[in-house]
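Notes to self, Zinc-ribbon domain-containing protein:
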Amino acid sequence: MEMKLLMGLFSKGKQSCDICGKTIGFGKVKCLDGVICGDCQLKQHKVSKIIGSNKLTLDEIKSYICSGDENVRKLNEFVVTRKVGKFLEIDENKQQWLIPDGPLGSKKNPKIYNFSDISSYELIEDNDTIIRDCFGSFNAKVAKKNVSKLYVKITVKDFNNPVVMIKIVNTPIKKNSLAYSSAFKSAQEIMSLLELINTECNDVDKVEKASGTVIYCKKCGNKMDIDSVFCSKCGEKL
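result:
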């Protein structure tokens, strides 16, 4: 009798994931309009990063998971044609780029971006912007002996995760060292490649706008065919 009662209590605590259908017990995760399992939450979090499942609807979580699955497919098809050390990889043929997310430049599940996703970029040294948009501006207040951080900040057309960082230096080093010279050379190369990508995208945009064959989403800036009704990236009605 006691065993049946215990089994009944455990069975009442179990539910099915509203996304994948898997039976879940006490490890369920609540969202705005349902519950999901830990696996689905992990898949969603890999894409949405800072947004918790409790702030999303089931449809939004499904969208994130589908986006992650699509990214895995893109990663399998990604062919590196240009790279800067362990910091940046580019597929010129598909006009895509990624930042390796594993140790020593390896890839676990990095997000793949299109060339057209880049909005702006700047090189930052210890919180001071020293180069913006490659040739845009220089900051003279960097006469120091040591540097703790050197990174490229890229703003992308993604409302959920609008900032991407390429960390080049993350521990204190001397500015007159070979390590700093090598790091700064990599940073300059990254900025130059971003400038080339930006110039190429601007040239293509001018031609396409003149031809009237494309339309841009007002919410996220995604480029689509002129006859599109909804944005293929954020779902916004055009």
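- The chain has two domains: 15-75, 78-225.
- The radius of gyration is 23 Å.
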